Amino acid sequence: MRDLMESIENLSTVIPKHIISMKDLNRSALEYFFDVAHQFSKLEPHLVCDLLTGKVAGTMFYQPSTRTRLNFHSALQRLGVSVIGFSDPATTRAGDYYRESLEDVVAFTGQLCDILVLRHNETGAAQRAVNVSPVPLISAGDGYNEHPTQALGDIWTMHKELNGLDRKVIGMIGDLAIRSLRSITIGLSEFNIKKLLFLLPPGMQVPSEIEDLLKNKNITWELVDQVDELLNKADLIESIGVRHPNHNLKFHASLEGATTPKKYLLTSEVIRKNKRYIPILHPGPRTDEISCDVDKLDNAAYFRQANNGMWMRMAIISGLLFKGDKVKRRARMSLSEMVL
Ligand code: CP
Questions:
Q1: How confident is residue 300, by pLDDT bands cut at 50, 70 and 90?
Q2: Fewer CB within 10 Å: C terminus or N terminus of the chain?
Q3: Atom of ligand 1 nearest to the CA of 66
Q4: Whose CA is nearest to atom 3 of ligand 1?
Q5: CA 303, CA 153: separation in Å to the nearest integer?
Q6: Ligand 1 centre and the CA of 284: distance in Å?
Q7: What is the full DSSP assignment across 32-71?
Q8: Which of 267, 171, 180, 265 is nearest to 224 (CA)?
């Protein structure tokens, strides 16, 4: 427990006040996150359940979510943080006659909470929220911008699955303009990755911003044509699939009827054809791009990935709440020494 408290303290000194972009986190910060998340995952729950008792979090979800919202709620509750919030803006003044502005919702909710979590359909909403938030704010994904907590959990999962990231070849299936893949790519560029392999949806290109970033960081990348090529060349594959709604809409149109073209499909048959073991990640939600018969293979790292995301969010929340909270932190450290 004492090691954990020291690690959280170290983490709190290297992270920004808010977590809205992977661009704000260097390799050293990422490794501190890995360390704290790892320690949370190894501790008995009763040792951390009062770590942040008395704190209140506000979760503001303007867009649907399964994993991210529940993952945050689980992480907050495991730390002893009480949670208020909404999962549908239609139940708030933002969704009725008043069309209350994002700025007002954040500024008012921030008066009631010690930390805020925001998911929003608009690209750039996280930055707008941070501009008025009186407390630390974590982005749970905004439009086509970023999804930093997904990236932190996923990159830690890659690190665990591959026993490190340096000199590894990482394959990705999907549109790099989508927030999860964009944030993951930004985070991976902090490591000495051997190569990134991209299997993009039809007609898509690597966004120029990502191309520039990879060039500046000396990361080699290559486009591939089909999933077999990725399975032959990559050490790990993360797929987000190629069928997506418009992420700038509050509510998504149905994707019913469309199917993923074969060259993007991960099935147990194509995975087994490849002799090497390759972990498969997916941030969710999936449609048909990874068939359910993959779930029973060890390669299906996406369930481990969801679990890792929870430990990582505990690291993020504790790091932000300990930042600048020195008096309470010292009291908690004494308490943890007594527990020992
Ligand atoms: N990965 C992810 O963001 O999933 P949800 O949309 O279900 O939160």
A1: very high
A2: C
A3: 7
A4: 68
A5: 12
A6: 6
A7: HHHHHHHHHHHS-HHHHTTTTTT-EEEEEESS--SHHHHH
A8: 171
Dihedral (CA of 319, 65, 83, 338) sign: negative
Q: What SS3 class is residue 119?
A: strand
CA end-to-end span of the chain: 7
Ligand 1 centre and the CA of 306: distance in Å? 10
| Residue tagged 């300990």 (tokens) | 322
Ligand 1 pocket test, candidate residues 66, 119, 150, most atoms within 8 A of CB: 66
Both structure tokens of 22: 């992977």
Beta strand 221-223 pairing with 280-281: unpaired
The widest CA-to-CA distance across the chain, in whole angstroms, is 60
Question: Residue 32's beta-bridge partner residues?
Answer: none
* Residues in the ligand 1 pocket, defined by CB under 6 Å: 65-68, 141, 150, 283-285
| Cα gap 164→194, rounded to integer Å | 12
- Is a pLDDT exceeding 60 seen at residue 280? yes
- Of 71, 180, 72, nearest to 116 (Cα)? 72
Cα angle 199, 200, 202; round to 5: 125
Torsion angles phi and psi, residue 84, rounded to 5: -120, 170
Handedness of CA 19, 24, 27, 28 (dihedral sign): negative
Question: 325: pLDDT confidence band, cut at 50, 70 and 90?
Answer: confident
Is the CB of residue 155 less than 8 Å from the CB of residue 172? no
Model confidence pLDDT, tens digit, residues 260-271: 999 999 999 999
Q: How far apart are the CA of 1 and the centre of ligand 1, in A?
A: 31
pLDDT at 331 over 70: no
Assigned token pair, 193: 């990755």
pLDDT value at position 38? 97
Q: Would you tell me how many other CB atoms lie within 10 Å of the CB of residue 75?
A: 25
**Which is more confidently placed, 259 or 210?**
210
Q: Is the pTM of this model over 0.70?
A: yes
Query: Do residues 170 and 188 lie in contact, with contact meaning Cβ atoms separated by under 8 Å?
Result: yes
Phi, psi (deg, nearest 5) at residue 77: -70, -35
